[in-house]
Amino acid sequence: MEAVFSRWPNVIVQFEDFQSKWAFRLLQRYRKTYRMFNDDVQKGTAGVAIAGLLGAVRAQGRPMIDFPKQKIVVAGAGSAGIGVVNAASRTMARMLGNNEVAFESARSQFWIVDAHGLITEERVDIDPDARPFARRKSELTHQGLNEGASLIEVVKKVKPDVILGLSAVGGLFSKEVLEALKDSSSSRPAIFAMSNPTKNAECTPEEAFSIIGEKVVFSSGSPFDDVDLGDGKIGHSNQGNNMYLFPGIGLGTLLSGARIVSDGMLQAAAERLASYMKEEEVLQGIIYPPTSRIRDITKEVAAAVVREAVAEDLAEGYRDMDARELARLSEEETVDYVKNNMWNPVYPTVVYKKD
Fold first, then answer.
1. 22, part of any domain
2. How far is Cα 258 from Cα 266, in angstroms, rounded to an integer?
3. What does the entry list as the binding residues for (S)-malate (predicted)?
4. 241 annotated as a binding-site residue
5. Model pLDDT for residues 305-324, shown as the tens digit of each residue
6. Peptide bond before 68: cis, by omega within 30 degrees of 0?
7. Any domain includes 173
8. Which of 23, 49, 188, 217 is geometrically suited to a Cys-Cys bond with 18, CB 3.0 to 4.6 A?
9. Has residue 24 been placed in a domain?
10. Calpha distance 194→168 (Å, rounded)
11. Facing residues of 233 across strands?
């Protein structure tokens, strides 16, 4: 990293597909020194998942600030799964005051299930990255659960608002699991079957809507068609694709001249994506925009990142726009600043003519 930044001091470095044991270790080692990020555990999968989770709260007719009240069962404890849980818990904690009590409360909203079942403090050789989310023995007695409880047991007992799949196990959200989710404490439960490729998706939208009904909010990592529910009703299949966030976060980091990519910048990006959809769209279960709007959402995300970098005093400016000038920009002016610095992928026709 030192060699890269010595040669290209303004570069932004992306880490991709690192094993879990390396992903978090290297992230913690470099993130406060260099402009870098890990797409799996921070900026891409995690950020888009958080935006979707916040969108699911809106789909329940509730404000995003109610996110810390959501009970979330997570299937998968690899780098992507733990990355999403870490990022989501930090988002909850920031909404609750960003202190130790807030972090403790946020962590209590997650139940993580891996190949060996529910992760608790009784687990032998527990992964250090999963340890903060291990369920306590005192909680297990109250909930009627135990170490290694199966996914279906956890869903039945917890009655979660959300089940989040990052397991890479196709069909993991079986008919029994989906039937159990019908008893969710939420009036509109959400399913995030985020594993790729399609064959690894934890369930399909057809399975989700046919078993749970039209009220479920469905999102996946792979593309699926919407589902015809009959009587003119559509079950919307949302794809939580990294493309909604990483161009905007990269652009916002560049245009702000931010020294690092902070958690606050990532959260600002996710919240802007979550709030981008209109109320009537969200209430229909549409939590991500169509790809036809990708340039507009990238512009909005980048502007949110710039403003957060300024707010955290991380911005150093870009080219002729120094940090003080960035700080004076209104929200609308920041969007215009981003728009004016976006590359337009149009190739003009050049014809050579002889005199």
1. no
2. 12
3. 196, 241
4. yes
5. 999 999 999 999 999 999 99
6. no
7. yes
8. 23
9. no
10. 8
11. 230
Q: Using one digit for the tens of pLDDT, what is the confidence trace for 90-117?
A: 999 999 998 999 999 999 999 999 999 9
The answer to the question of whether 38 is labelled as a binding residue is: no
Domain range for 132: 41-241
**How confident is the model over 266-291, as pLDDT tens digits?**
889 989 999 999 999 999 999 999 98
- Asked if residue 13 is part of any domain, the answer here is no
225 assigned to a ligand binding site: no
Three-state secondary structure call for residue 29:
helix
Output the domain CATH number for residue 178.
3.40.50.720
pLDDT band at 142 (very low <50, low <70, confident <90, very high): confident
Mean pLDDT, range 3-29, rounded to an integer: 86
CB atoms within 10 A of CB 16: 10
Q: Which two tokens stand for residue 99?
A: 């202190």
Residue type, 134: A
Beta-sheet pairing, 110-114 with 72-75 = parallel
Phi, psi of 180 (to 5 degrees): -65, -35
Binning pLDDT at 50, 70 and 90, where does residue 41 land? low
Burial of 70 (0-12, 13-18, 19+ CB in 10 A): buried
Q: How far apart are CA 111 and CA 143, in angstroms?
A: 12
Tell me the DSSP string of 203-251: --HHHHHHHH-TT-EEEESS----EEEETTEEE-EEE--GGGTHHHHHH
Report the domain count for the chain: 1
Q: Are 282 and 59 in contact (CB under 8 A)?
A: yes
What the block records as the tokens of 104 is 């403790």
Distance CA 145, CA 292 (A): 45
Question: How far is Cα 142 from Cα 144, in angstroms, rounded to an integer?
Answer: 6
Which tokens go with 306?
A: 């710039």
Tokens of 307: 């403003």
The C-alpha atoms of residue 92 and residue 181 are separated, in whole angstroms, by 23
Closest CA to 104 of 143, 55, 139, 141: 139
